[in-house]
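re: that chain from earlier
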Amino acid sequence: MPMLNETIDRYLATLHEPASQRAARADLVTFARWWEEQRGRAFDPTQLLAKDISAWVRHRQDVEERKPATINRGLSTLRRFGEWLVAEQMIRENPAKDVRDLPLEEHGPRSLPDDAVDAVLRAVQAEEEPYIRLRDGALLALLAYAGLRSQEACDVQLRDLDLDAGNVIVRLGKGRKTRRIPLHSDAVALLRRYLRELRCPDGLPAIGSDAEREPLLVAQDRTKVGHPLVPGMSTRLVRHRIAVLCQRAAAQLRAAAKKEPRVERAAQLTQMASQLDAASPHALRHSLARRMLRRGADLSEVQRVLGHSRLSTTGIYTVPDDDDLRDAIDRAGI
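^ sequence. v structure.
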């Protein structure tokens, strides 16, 4: 697909965030391959029609059985790609402009119960390797307590922490927006210990120095002898470490459920373990948002912490999630 690859690369160069580039490339390549299978020829974006995109939506829904949210994300990518093609005068009209999104099931983002988040925080202490234990504690301080996205956590620099004031600055949030987030005292404690015992045992670097601009989080460089610790943690490693911690927490909850004499509580522990099995770093962000709202925060306050451009985006957290519905059903028992 030489023409496709060249066109995609030119379009992706207009996107600033690595995560957005990866998602857009995956969506466009998936669509192009499907188009080639249907048409029996190389994909040509200048030949796109609205009916092609509508047929692709039906294929993803009926044949691949993809979720509406996944299909709509692909549609959004195609719309933006179409707008760019029009701006580049490669086509006259955007073929995806009038293709409607699929209706979504009305439920909020998947979050974790407070006890499940607590279990993940406690699971860090079971890590045998001291540097991983300290680093993962700092990572959770950013994800679970401050609601940072994975990429945002990876991008935090040493200069972005002001632990005396209890703040962290996100310089490259979604849409390349900057925001300052207050830190919970527990998060401050985790970050102080990480800096003191691992990241900066000799003290913080001088203000204005190159070292001050290094990433906060560290990882092992497995390409070098001895696997030394170096500044910088990838989002892939973040996902892996959170998966490890969630699995460890799930195992602890299942073990606790077996010893729990109360049937109802044992069922709750087992349910939380199941939720942790499929949890992602983003679930910690969702959990913070719901926790804030439940404890009296205004929607606008949650919006500022999460870095949403529109209040309507934050409003999704007011929609009941599965746990809310389960609690409502339990309260409705006869």
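The radius of gyration is 23 Å.
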